[in-house]
Amino acid sequence: MEEPPHRKPRKFAAGISLDKFAKLKKSTFDKREKLEKQRKLNAATVNKYKKLKERLGDKREPKFKLMQDEPDADEQQQVQQQAQQHVQQPQQAQQGAADEEQQTLEGGTLPPQHQLEGGPGRDAAFGGRGGRGGGRGRGRGGRDDDAGGGSKRHKPQSHVQRIAADVQTDKAAKQQEQQERQRLFEERRAKLAAEAKQRAAKSKLLFKKTSHGQPVMKYRVEKVLEQLQQQQ
Predict the structure, then answer these.
(1) Whether the Cβ atoms of residue 112 and residue 118 lie closer than 8 Å to each other
(2) 0.70 cut: is pTM over it?
(3) Sorting pLDDT into bands at 50, 70 and 90, what band is 133?
């Protein structure tokens, strides 16, 4: 069979050349060439940036402007006064607390908050006397109003105390209601358990058999009679 004219005849028993065989197993990648190419690219970028910087010159504005003008004397004095005020405020507060503590230790008047509260500190400061309209405590001479027949007025409850009392009352009511529900639940559970036990006993008797495997008709007849009585 003849091959078509447009095809070259195939050479049988002809291999590839030595050059092609050597190039097939050889890699053409060279790392030194790659690094050199990258270095040239970086150098070109740097040169371009330098030329642009020279062309612009001083037209660019700096990102951070430094303060060229020095502050005036008034501004410096104002800054110093503010710094002194910040330092003196804690010192004055500490000095006031120390003076109040010293007056208390020396037996002077108590701080205003103790005087306004009217607590035990107020009675101690005024020789054991209570507020106006209240009974005298164990003050001068160690006498008590109870011995003289006086009546001691009770201090009214505060808002917080009233709220606490209401909360305690609600809590007690809820606890009592919960106990009642628990008691009813226990009674119902005991009743259901007794009924289930009774039904199990009846079923056991109903399905009871003799030694020969025959059902005991006595209990079945009793059940039928009981059902008839209930229907009547």
Answers:
(1) no
(2) no
(3) very low
